């Protein structure tokens, strides 16, 4: 049974339900790409930050623990989407970069993600989307500040 946000739900609960359903929808559409939400977000972070990153940098940016990130990166490496390069300054560490296949796959996923987002938001006027972005930004900033 799918739970729907209602007027009685708290804002936090509504955000959680929407985020979960959005991820499910995306994961369903990502199956042909051999990716899930949990796998493509680290790839996006590598691209967003411009290239070679340590696993800890990716984990910190995505608010994940390092052991989860290491397992995720191992899966991405096994699928040919990332490669590890030793860190010359610290032989115990390594950098992670996207492969050509990883870049291509990420571009496909980003296009798909935009299609889903456009579909979900198509009936909401731009002015209301602007308000929604500002409100979510405010909520995010408060949560970030409270986490320090």
Walk me through this protein's architecture.
This protein has 6 helices and 2 strands. With 148 residues, the chain is mostly helical. Strands 1-2 form a two-stranded antiparallel ribbon. α1 (11-30) packs across α5, α2 crosses α3 and α2 (37-48) crosses α5. The mean pLDDT is 91. GO terms for molecular function: DNA binding; DNA-binding transcription factor activity.
Give the topology.
Layout: H1 11-30, H2 37-48, H3 55-62, H4 66-78, E1 82-87, E2 90-98, H5 100-121, H6 126-146
Antiparallel strand pairs: 1-2
Q: Mean pLDDT, nearest integer?
A: 91
Give helix % range.
Answer: 55-70%
Largest sheet: 2 strands, antiparallel
CATH fold type = Arc Repressor Mutant, subunit A
- Which percent range describes the beta-strand content? 5-15%
Please give the number of β-strands.
2
SSE order, as H and E? Answer: HHHHEEHH
Concise account of the structure shown:
By secondary structure, this protein is mostly helical.
Give a quick set of tags describing it.
148 residues; mainly alpha; Arc Repressor Mutant, subunit A; two-stranded antiparallel ribbon; 2 strands; globular
């Amino acid at each position: 049974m799918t739970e729907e946000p209602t007027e009685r739900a708290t804002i936090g609960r509504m955000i959680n339900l929407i985020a979960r359903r959005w991820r499910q929808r995306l994961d369903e559409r990502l199956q042909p790409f051999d990716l899930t939400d949990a796998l493509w977000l680290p790839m996006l972070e590598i691209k967003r930050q411009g290239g070679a990153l340590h696993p800890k940098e990716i984990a910190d940016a995505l608010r994940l623990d390092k052991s989860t990130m290491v397992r995720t990166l191992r899966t991405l490496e096994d699928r040919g989407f990332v490669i590890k390069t030793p860190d010359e300054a610290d032989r115990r560490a390594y950098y992670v970069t996207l492969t050509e296949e990883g870049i291509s796959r990420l571009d496909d996923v980003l296009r798909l993600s935009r299609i889903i987002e456009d579909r979900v938001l198509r009936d909401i006027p731009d002015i209301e989307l602007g308000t929604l972005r500002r409100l979510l930004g405010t909520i995010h900033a408060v949560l970030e500040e409270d986490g320090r």
